[in-house]
Prior knowledge:
heterotrimer; A: alpha/beta; 10 strands; globular; C: mainly alpha; two-stranded antiparallel ribbon
Amino acid sequence: MLEVENLVAGYGKVQVLHGISLSVPAGKLITLIGSNGAGKTTTLRALSGMIKPTSGSVSLGGAPIAGLRSHEIARKGVAHSPEARRVFPTLTVADNLLLGAFPRLTGARQRGDVKGDQQRMFELFPRLGERRNQLAGTLSGGEQQMLAMARALMLQPEVLLLDEPSMGLAPRLVEEVFHTIARLKAQKITMLLVEQFAAAALDVADYGYVLENGRLTREGPAEQLKNDPAVRAAYLGAAH
Amino acid sequence: MPRILLAALGIVVAALYPFADNLLPFAGGTLASNYYLHLVVVIAIYSVLTLGLDIVFGYTGEVSLGHAGLFGIGAYAVGVPVFFKLGLPFFVVLPLGALVAAAFGFVLALPALRVTGPYLAMVTLAFGTIIQILINEMTFLTNGPLGVKLVTPTFWDFSDYADALPFLDMSTARMRMVEYYYVCAIVLGLVVIGVNRLLGSHIGRAFQALRDSPIASDCMGVSVYRYKVYAFVVSAGLAGLAGALSAYSEQYIAPNNYSFELTITFLLAVTMGGRKSRLGPIIGAVIVVFLPNLLADIRLFRMLAGIIAAVAVVSGGIALLRKPEKPRQIVIPVALCVAFFVFSLLLKNITDYRLSVFGMMILFVVYYLPDGIYGFLRQAVARVRPDLVRAHAIIREHGDESHVWASSPAAATSGGALLDVRSVVMQFGGLRALDRVDLAVAPGSIHGLIGPNGSGKSTMMNVLTGIYRPTGGDVVFAGAPITGLNPPDIAARGVARTFQNVQLFVELTVIENVMVGLHHSYRSNLLDIVLHTPRYKREEREARVRAASILDFVGLAGLANEEARNLPYGKQRLLEIGRALALDPTLLLLDEPAAGLTAPDIKELIDIIRKIRAHGITVILIEHHMDVVMGISDTVTVLDFGQKIAEGRPAEVQANERVIEAYLGGSTTTKVA
Amino acid sequence: MDVFLQLVVSGIAVGMIYGVIAFGYQLTFATSKTLNFGQGEALMLGALVGLTVVAYTGFWLMLPVVLAFGLLQGTVVEWLGVRQAIRMKSEAGWIMATIALGIIFRNLAENIWGRDDLRFPSPLPEAPIAMGNVRVLPMEILVVVGAIALMLAVELFNRRSIFGKAVVATANDRDAAGLMGINTSLVITFSYALSSMTAAFAGVLVAPVTLTGATMGAVLGLKAFAVAIIGGLSSGIGAIVGGLILGIAETMTGYYLSTGYKDVPGLVLLLLVLTFKPSGLFGKAAIKKV
C-alpha cells in the first residue's frame, strides 16, 4: 500500500533522515521504533506532507505522493494522527470527528455514510460518545488520543499513520490505547505505528523497523525483533 | 582601503559642491543653484533621520511608524522657543531638539517595546498620530495650524569679501544658504561617524543579536528589552536632531507636515536605500527627496521608467539564460517594471498618483529588493569582484591558550551542591510538566539528565535559565536563590546554556557570535564608543583576543569571519558552546548538543566537554544519545512524566528496571491475538 | 444627565462600527497571525463603491454589490500583500506590504472620487426618534442592528457549516488542519476576503451617519486596532465591548473637551492596553516554548 524508498528529510540545515526505505503492505500493522531523536516523527511528517522530503520517493497504492502538500496527501487517503494529538480544542468532539471526514464531505473523496461512521466511532470509543458535545480542549490526555485516532479513521483512509500514541499517557491508558490498536488491526486497517515503547509496539505489530540516528539498522517480523538484544542497546546505549 | 578613498572623495565633493557652477561652468549653471542647494540640504537632513531609523528597522528589525512624530518634536523643540521669542542661540537649540525627541522616544519606548511586530507598529503609529493632533490643538504652545516662522541663522559676515571675489554670489541670501549647507553637511558627517562606531561596537552586535534570536540574546546576558529601548532612543534623538535642522532650513513649520505620509517617506527611504549600511539610508534619502521632482515632470518620469524597464528586461534575460530553478521569480519583477513603464505612458499627470507610486515602490522593495538598492548593488559587485565587498569588519586578532578562560570558576560553597533544585513544580494549565523534582548537582561534575519524550527535561532547562518561572519549589545556585530571576540576570550569575534548536545570531559572523557572549566584559558607554576612548579600544581588543582564543578551543579558529548561517550544522553546535563559554560560566547547561551530529563530530564534542570539565566548570547535559551521556557523565538523573525516577552512576541507571520500563514500555500486558 | 445619556447613545453606534472593524482584524489574525494595516481603507472603498452604486440601485440592492466587492478586495490584499510574506516568514514584510496597499487604495480613491467629503444618502428617514429625552437617528439603530447581524452571521457560519469549522480548525492548529485535507492557504485567503467584506459593510453602514471620503478610513483603522487588542485579538464579544467603551469615550471627549481631541482617547487607549495587558482584557497569555 505504502512504499518508501531512500527517503531523505530534515529541517532546514539539519538532515534527520539519511535515506530510509520501508513498506507498509495493505492490511498489515508495521511499526517503526527507535529512541528519541532517531527521526521517527520526522518520518511520519515527511509521509503525510507536513514537511517536504529532500529526496526519495513515497508511493501510495502505486501513485507517487512525495512532495505534495499535506492537504493533498490527506485527500488521497493518508490519515495522520500526529504527535501530541493536536485535536482542535475549541471545537466539539463531534465536530473534530466531522473534520476528519472533511475530504469526504467536500467531494474530494467518496462520501459514503459520514454520519454512520461518526456513530460507529462513538461506539468504538464509548468515552468519546459520552462527551460528544464537549469541547475537545477539555478532554484528558487519554481521551484526546482516542479522539485523534478516531478523527483519523473518519477519513476511511488507505493507510493510517499513528505518531507515538502512548506519549505522555499513564501506563493504564497506554494499555487501553494498544488494545484499541489491536482491535483496528483485527479489522485489517493498514497502519504504520511509530512508537518509543518498543515492547508494546512489537507485541501488537506484524513487522518492525528499528530507526537509529536517521538510519534503519534492523528490521524483521515483530516476534523476532522482540527478543533481539540489539534493540535494547539501541535505546539505552551499550553497557557501561 | 578603498573605503577611506571613497570617504575622502565624498568629503572633497561635499566641500566644493556649493561652488560647482563656478568649477564646472560647462554643466549648465544650475548644479548648485539655490533650488538644488536646498534640495541637497534636505537630503542631508533626511539622511540624519534615516540613519537613525535604520538602527531600529535594519538592526533591531522593528517597524516604527512614528518617526515623523519624533521629527516634528525636534522641529517644534526649536520652534516653540522661537514662538515665544526667547532668542536662544542656534547651537543651544540644536541639541535641544535631539534631547527632547530622545526624551519623548524614551517615554514611548518604555511601554511600547514590551510588545513587538504589528503591535509595536500600531503603537508607534498611534504615537505619531497623537503628536500631530497635539501639535495642532495646543495652539498656546505651538500656534497650532498657523505654524511658526523661523529664520535660517548666519554665522559669518562675508560681505567684506564680496569685492575680492566678484565671480561668486556673495549676497546675504546665498551666503545664508551656503553656510547652512556646511552646517548640515558637517552634522551629517559626524552622525555617520558616530552611528558607524556605535553599530560596529558591542552595542551594535547586541542590536543584531536581539533581532536574530531574542531567547539566546537574553540567555547570553543581553537584555532584549533594554537594548531595544536603547536603539529606539538613539534613533529618536537623531530624528529630533533632523527635525531641528529642518525647522531652520525650511524656515516654517506646521503640524500637517509631520503626517503619516512623511513617516512612509522615511520608511521607503530606508527600505529602498538598503538596510544595515551607512550609504543605504543616504541613497534612500536622495531617492525620496528627488522623487516628487521626478513625478512633477511626466516626460522625465516616463524616461526613467523606460530606462528601468529596459535594465530589468536585459538583466532578467541574462538571468533566465542561466536556467534558474524558479523562472517565475525573475519574470514577475521584470513584468512589473514593464507594466510600470506602460502605466507611465498612459497617465497625463503623475503628481496626483504620487502616493500610489510610493506604495508600489514599497511593495516592490519588500518582495524583490529586501536589501535595498545598495544591497542589490553590493551583491552584483560581489559576484564579479568578491574581494571588494565585505559585509562585516574582518577581525584579525589571534587567540592563545592563556586567554580562553577569564578566571577560575568560583569555588563551590562549602563543598555542597553547586546547583540545588528543591521540589520544583511546573504547571501549565492542566499539565504538570515537573512534579516536585529534586536535583543536586555536585561542583566540577558532569551531570546527565535523561528521560523519554515529554518527561520534563527541556522544561527543567528553561526553569533553570529563567525562561519559565516555576509554579512551586526553589532553585538555589552557589548558595543564592535564583528562582524566578529573568534570563539575563541568571546569565550574569554564571549560568550559560546551549539550545536544542540551534539559536545562533545568523547575520553575525562566527567570532561576532562569541563576542556577544563577551558583552558582560565591557564597561564602556555610548560616549566611549563614539569617541573611541582608550578604555573602549582596550576593551574591544581584549574581547577580540578572548573570542579568538575561545574559537581555538572549540576548533573553529579558521572560520572566525564566516557568517554563522553558512556553517555546517555540527560546527554551529560547537559555536553555541563557544558562545556560552564566553559568559565565564560556573555552570554550563547543554541541551541535546549531540543531536544531528555525525560520529566524528560527536567525538570532538565529547573531547570539548571533558576539557571544559577539566577547567572546573560544572556541566549539566541533556541528551538522547545514550552512548554520549552514559560515556561521559559522573551522575545521571532520569525523569519520567515530570518526576525523578532514578539517579546514580551510568551503569546503575542503565540496569534500573524502572528506567528500562520507562523507555521501552511494559511488555507483557498487551498480548492480543 | 440627559446630555450624558445622549452621549452614551450616540457613542454606541460609533462603537459598533469599531467593533465590526475590530472583528475583521480578528478574522485574519486567528487563521494567519497577520492582519491588514489597510483595514480602514477597505472600509473606505466599501463606502465609496457603495456611494457610486447606490445611485443606480438604491440602498438595499447596493448591499450585496458592496459585499461582493469587499470579498474581492480582501482577496487581492492577501494575494498581493500577505501570501508571499507569510511564506518568507517576514513580519515586517506583510506589515509594510499591507500599509503600502492601503496607501495605494487611498490614493486611487482620491483620484477617482476626489478629495472632498461626499454625502451618502441615508436609506432611512433622517428625523431623529425621541426616546425619553434622548434622540436617536434611525440610521444609528440600523448600524447597531447591521453590525450585530453581520457578526452573528459569521459566527453561525463558523458553527454550522463544515467550511466554517474548517476555518476554526485552521485557526486552532494550521498543521493539523492540513492533515484533515483542509487547504489552509485557501482558508487564509478566505479569511482576508471575509475581513474586507465586513469592513466594506461597516463602510456603508457608517457612511450615511458621517462624512464619506477618501480619508475616512485611516484613523478608524487605527482606533479599531485598539478595540481588537482589547478583545484579545480572539474574542468577538471583546471586540464589541471594546468598541462600545471607545465609542462612548470618544463622544464624551468630543463634548467635554473639544472636537479636535476626539481621536485621542482611542489612541491613548491603544497605548495603555498594549502597555499593561497586551493580551487584551479578554485574551489569553501565550506560553513561550523553547
